[in-house]
Amino acid sequence: MTTTTQGDAATTTRGNAGGTTTQGDADTATQGNTGTATRGNVGAAYIRVEGRDKVTGAARYAGEIPFADLAHGWLVLSSVARGRVRALDTDAVLAMPGVLTVLHHGNAPRVDTAFTGMMGVAPDPSTGLFQHDRVPHMGWPVALVVAETSEQAREAAEALVVRYDREPHDVAFSAGREAEAYALDGHMPAVVEKGDLEAELAASAVVVDAEYTTPEEHHNPMEPHAAAARWEGGRLEVVDSNQGTGWVAGELANLFSLDPASVRVRSEHVGGGFGSKGTRAHQVAAVMAATVLQRPVRVVLTRRQMFSLAGHRSPTAQRVRLGADADGRLRALEHRSLNHTSTVHDFVEPGAAASRSMYAADAHHTASRLVKLDVPTPTWMRAPGEAPGSFALESALDELAERCGIDPIELRVRNEPAVGPVSGLPFGSRNLIACFREGARRFGWDGRDPRPGVRREGRWLLGTGTAAASFPTLAMPSTAALTAEADGTFTVRINAADIGTGARTALTLVAADVLEVPADRVRVRIGDSDLGAASIAGGSAGTRSWGWAVTAAAQELRRSLPQGADIPPEGVTVRSDTAEALGALARKERHAFGSQFAEVAVDPATGEIRVRRMLGIFAAGRIVNPLTARNQFVGGMTWGISMALHEEAVRDRASGGLYGADLAGYHVAAHADVPHIEADWVDDPDPDDPVGIKGIGEVGIVGAAAAVANAVWHATGVRHRNLPIRPDRVLAGGDA
Ligand code: MOS
């Protein structure tokens, strides 16, 4: 029904939306939604609508919602990296207190994994739990023990003896595996070649040819994955923590061959996802057990289990070759990226793909390839492709700037494309250079001494670095319902997911803005597959996709409900569906952009690196809520520090498992690691989105690790091309 024209986009922009909002504005608004913030315009700071519930504990998460007669499942994971389950000694465990059943490949319900999943990509068959005796990686689920209490289930699960026929495994990822790698189109084409790369490299005055690596990384949302399943009046009901209840409900319906209408998944509050919260082993295990026992069953993953069951970001080995004229103008840009995947599923970490849109060059070759190892299947993790890819490309740009004797920002200005460098398509909007100009001004970049290793402060060497950020601007079809209630309030119903981003609040503001009512007269219901089809919280597309549907519904309500009309007790409800409007969008290069700046201090005696300050300036569409938007950017930048200096999941080649698969062994940047971070933005409303939104969930991490690494070079004169830049690598003086 409702389609939204481009013309509406401009006219709905008002208030202080889209202007540069300073950090100061955002901070002073944290006192509450009082004073000028009360109305809740798009663009004005507004505290999260469920914030009070969250800080008082009233907001319940999937692992703590009470159910009558709830049984508890505990997963048993393989202790070998490859082989077969020969035997499970279930009798001993079934005799333990409270134990109700043990599910495994010999007795579990059959499921169907041969269906088409998200974005037309086949789902990871790892969700087909207990269907065979093969073990494809360390930490593969081999059994579920269900008991009356969580403690009984855990004790029995830990007591279960599983015997394996072991086979030799291979988890050794390295750049040297490229010879056996293969290209596969994932959510973008794997290999794209434009122009004669070798000829342009040969004609270049300066060539940078460097290899970069990034380690295996894990999402580690604060809230572990958890799901409770039960059969209720012939319907399967699942209470879960996920990034899209429709996504999970659809996959569960497919797996268990159920009518989609008979599956309901709810996920009201989510303590982070970062790409890891789709359909995974815990929901499938809970559904199997609830079906077998005919009572509610909950399965919660431990932190340690998340390291093999929640997906991860593959390690990457990348090679970048840049050829330029003496003045820095690029003739050739080659970016190749290699990632690992499991033996059961192909997942591409498209590390080279983002390079297709960044810089003009006469020849452009990009390729992402993968190699199969005996590891868990990697998955989407915040800025999949862009995060590791930007470390390589933006480090290489810094190396080229050094070699050409050009300021790194000026180098990017000289290679700014007028249209998509490979696609030839126009940009929706491209304000990368505006981000660099504003960032340089705010950071104090001008007058920087380009020489490395010459600034000292006591035992510290000081340096500054910069890098570019980009992330695609996506939108997924969504439906929404909007009810004008008889009491003068409004209810939005949309199957959105608020994974901590503040989506619920953003949609409240979007609706209030179109309806021209105070935000406290709008309530937003989300996180329930019964609400209908809508985008997942993924691809940084959630708020844009849902905001579009909410705007369309609100515009329709204003058209169909005259001002002052009597509203019947049941209210007046309108619905929207954005599929048609999205289908009519012209093809463009649609991206958010940003500039990242970092200052570091390096102690050459200990190898310690301290990030002293960071600044990110983003051109990421119209900012709906500066408070929660700043959280997104600063969160992404914090991930960038973490990626640059700390995070590294190390696989033990002997066992095939991870060393220290917990938050003690896998260090995520904590308060002591994170300095003052400023994030701000330039005016950049998306011309085709009815609200002007682009999406901000992922662009904040992109380029952040490169900015830190470039600052470490500026401090020390040593290039670090392997992440993380650990103290031992600093002491070793570079590639190690
Ligand atoms: Mo994000 S990695 O698209 O959930």
UniProtKB/TrEMBL annotation:
- The UniProt record lists the keyword Oxidoreductase: yes
Which keywords has UniProt assigned to this entry? Molybdenum, Oxidoreductase
Residue stretches making up the Aldehyde oxidase/xanthine dehydrogenase a/b hammerhead domain? 56-168
Q: State if Amino-acid biosynthesis is listed as a keyword.
A: no
Bias (Low complexity) occurs at 1-32
| Ranges where the record places region Disordered | 1-39
This protein's name: Xanthine dehydrogenase family protein molybdopterin-binding subunit
The opening ranks of the lineage are:
Bacteria, Bacillati, Actinomycetota, Actinomycetes, Kitasatosporales
